[in-house]
Amino acid sequence: MRKVLGVMTEDFRLYHDLVEELKARDIPFVSLSFSRRIPENVGVVLTSRNEVDRVPRRPVIAVEDIDTSIAKALQAVDGRTRWEELLVGIDPGAEPGVAIVGDGRVLSASQASSPEDVARIVKDALGAFPSSRRHIRVGHGDRTNRNRILNALAREELPAEIVDEAGTTDRTEEPDIDAAIKIAFVSGVRANPPYVVDPTPGEVKDIQRRSRVTSEGDVTISKDLAVKVARGEITLDEAVHKQRHHS
């Protein structure tokens, strides 16, 4: 009997997000109720952290990150407890694409909220998917954000490779994620952080432009604040707030 995933939660937002992602990835699932028996073809149940104890059958997965939780559920359905090789591909940018590949199969793919957030995603993935070998690979482009990513990984003691990402970017609906998947399969050279984060004048001007968009034309942050944003020392919203307060 082919096992499917089960979604059991009264958290409407979580239910909506889970179902939307499962449908988008064409993953078989059934919606479950706490008041009804779980069908025999359900191999694992996805629910919220607060509702785990209400689920009458195991295995059950408390959803934190949607992508990682679905990947863990698929792993449980397949009866996998360990991967021979785990590849992590990272396409650098302000919101980097991150792909997790286990034995040639894409387990998870998402965008980080910032270059520094990549380290959290990678650390969580390495914990969720035990492996005999692992390779963390970062595309060489976008030097400023690439260096921020490599420095963040180094702070978590996660060694990485720098990969020539030429030819990894396609015109797709999710170019950053698709590029990250391709980067995962390309061998690179060992990174040696920490790296200097020195934004270009063009990057500083672009952040100033984004500050005008964010503030609806009300504020243009200073070059000094824009440099701090580019280095990851403060967020763009914090810079806009500081500029308003200073003015």
Task: Report on this structure.
There is one protein chain. By secondary structure, the protein is of the alpha/beta class. The protein has 3 domains: 4-78, Response regulator (Rossmann fold); 83-190, Nucleotidyltransferase, domain 5 (2-Layer Sandwich); 201-246, no CATH class. Helices cover 38% and strands 21% of the residues. The chain has 8 helices and 10 strands. The protein has helices spanning 12-24, 66-78, 117-128, 143-155, 175-184, 201-214, 223-231, 236-246; strands spanning 4-7, 29-31, 42-47, 60-62, 83-91, 97-102, 105-111, 131-139, 161-163, 189-190. The strands form 2 sheets. Strands 7-6-5-8-9-10 form a 6-stranded mixed β-sheet. α7 packs antiparallel against α8. The radius of gyration is 21 Å and the shape is globular. The chain starts with a strand and ends with a helix.
